[in-house]
Amino acid sequence: MKVAIIGTGNMASGLANTLAGAKHEVTLGSRDPGKASALAEKIGLGVRGGGITAAAKLAGVVILAIPFGAAADALKEAGDLAGKVLVDISNPISADYKSLLIGHTTSAAEKIQALAPKAKVVKAFNTIFAQLLPAEARQGKSLQVFVASNDEAAKAEVSALAQSIGFDALDAGPLSNSRFIEPIGEMNIHFGYFLGKGTVVAPAWVAV
Ligand SMILES: NC(=O)c1ccc[n+]([C@@H]2O[C@H](COP(=O)([O-])OP(=O)(O)OC[C@H]3O[C@@H](n4cnc5c(N)ncnc54)[C@H](OP(=O)(O)O)[C@@H]3O)[C@@H](O)[C@H]2O)c1
Known about the structure:
By secondary structure, the chain is of the alpha/beta class. Helix content is 37%, strand content 18%.
């Protein structure tokens, strides 16, 4: 798949590495194009880097790997996303990581859909710590990625993307279910940072 990743931080770098390793065509986009080019060069594996507009233009799937609060600016820079799959991986949390800033009647994913009404927004990966993106860090364990969207084809595409890098994609229903998935991400952060488990844990839905 042709994937644009907006951002050059922990998630952007981990996703770019893993996705490119699985033979996806990855372009990093940053508000500082030089930073994206430098990261792309460091990763290798055919990853390219540049500005946000150029990266988004080349791709069918655009992953926003930036803080939720930066989404409006980045989407403005991304330009026309009509018909593209837009993946929201964010946890809309406070600066101290301890609480969610959005919830109950909406979610970060729904806000992003409102900002990019012609894109097909998919919520995914918000419950996976960056440290667990490299396959070797998962030590053979199959971790679940909860995937929510109002567009079934987009959901299938992002599920295939997650599966191609060794995750178990779980259909989590419509985009409005992000109201429930984002609190799970926040609970995971509490386990990872405040309850002593470290950033090597991930939630899973278990059937008996
Ligand atoms: N880290 C995790 O384990 C984890 C797990 C699940 C989900 N998430 C979510 O993934 C997203 C990224 O997290 P991260 O840990 O990778 O963050 P990070 O390492 O702090 O990187 C954030 C990136 O966002 C960019 N950015 C910030 N403001 C921007 C703006 N106004 N316009 C364009 N780009 C902007 C930064 O660019 P500059 O370098 O130019 O400042 C940087 O590349 C967040 O929404 C987070 O909630 C993170």
